[in-house]
């Protein structure tokens, strides 16, 4: 997911929110509950209990999203806030943040995972397409598989980092595509600790274990 797509989604969300409940409040879906609409809030958290089904997307501007185990949801996105996704959860679409960390646990699945400024911690996760970031470290462990590439996007000379961005691929995790660094001004280090990259390392420096 490109930064332009993320911000376009944010803009559309902001325009739609006045007609929705939960503009300035938190939203909670109880364990096992089924919701047949999007969950959207500007200033508030979203919490989805174990075994719930959301036939829509969970979206917050200023607030974290916490998803329990064995949940089904169409997509998850946050502007300012973290995303935590429990074991066995299936996200039919993308998981993305602008400013915030993403953590996903064993058995979770998503189409694509992306941050602008935020760490990515994926353990035992299946990502159908790409994992991407502009300024966040990436850790894959517990047999995580990335069906596409790991992409470090170009921030057009506005990187906030004063030290190398680090990518850890551990514990049988694998990237079926390449590791691609689009930002020539950013130093990227990759550590293979029992993990593999099937494709090429384009702009990333392989470091010792």
List the helices and strands and how they pair.
Layout (H helix, E strand, L loop, with lengths): L2 H14 L10 E3 L4 E2 L3 E5 L2 E3 L4 E10 L2 E3 L4 E9 L2 E3 L4 E2 L2 E6 L2 E3 L4 E2 L1 E6 L2 E4 L2 E2 L3 E3 L4 E4 L3 E2 L3 E3 L12 E6 L3 E2 L3 E3 L6 E6 L2 E2 L3 E2 L1 E3 L3
Parallel strand pairs: 1-4, 2-5, 3-5, 4-6, 5-7, 6-8, 7-9, 7-10, 8-11, 10-13, 11-14, 12-15, 13-16, 14-17, 15-18, 16-19, 17-20, 18-21, 19-22, 20-23, 21-24, 22-25, 23-26
Number of helix segments?
A: 1
Outline the low-pLDDT stretches: 17-21
Overall mean pLDDT: 89
Oligomer: single chain
Query: What is the CA-atom radius of gyration, in angstroms?
Result: 17 Å
Note the overall shape: globular
Largest sheet: 11 strands, parallel
Helix proportion range:
under 10%
Distance between the termini: 30 Å
**What's the total number of strands?**
26
Structural class: mainly beta
What percentage of the residues does DSSP assign to strands (E)?
Answer: over 45%
Order of helices and strands: HEEEEEEEEEEEEEEEEEEEEEEEEEE
């Amino acid at each position: 997911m490109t930064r332009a797509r993320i911000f376009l989604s944010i803009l559309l969300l902001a325009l739609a929110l006045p007609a929705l409940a939960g503009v300035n409040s938190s939203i909670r879906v109880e364990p096992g509950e089924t919701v047949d609409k999007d969950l959207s809030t500007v200033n508030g958290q979203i919490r989805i209990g174990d075994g719930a089904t959301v036939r829509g997307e969970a979206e917050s501007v200023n607030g974290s999203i916490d998803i329990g185990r064995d949940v089904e949801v169409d997509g998850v996105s946050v502007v300012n806030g973290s995303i935590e996704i429990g074991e066995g959860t299936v996200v039919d679409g993308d998981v993305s943040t602008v400013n915030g960390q993403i953590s996903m646990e064993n058995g979770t699945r998503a189409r694509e995972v992306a941050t602008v400024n935020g760490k990515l911690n994926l353990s035992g996760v299946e990502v159908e397409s790409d994992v991407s970031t502009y300024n966040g470290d990436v850790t894959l462990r517990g047999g995580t598989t990335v069906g596409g590439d790991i992409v470090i996007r170009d921030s057009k000379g506005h990187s906030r980092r004063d030290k190398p961005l680090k990518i850890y691929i551990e514990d049988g995790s694998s990237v079926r595509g390449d590791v691609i660094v689009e930002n020539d001004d950013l130093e990227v280090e990759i550590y293979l600790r029992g993990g593999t990259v099937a494709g090429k390392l384009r702009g990333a420096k392989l470091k010792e274990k």
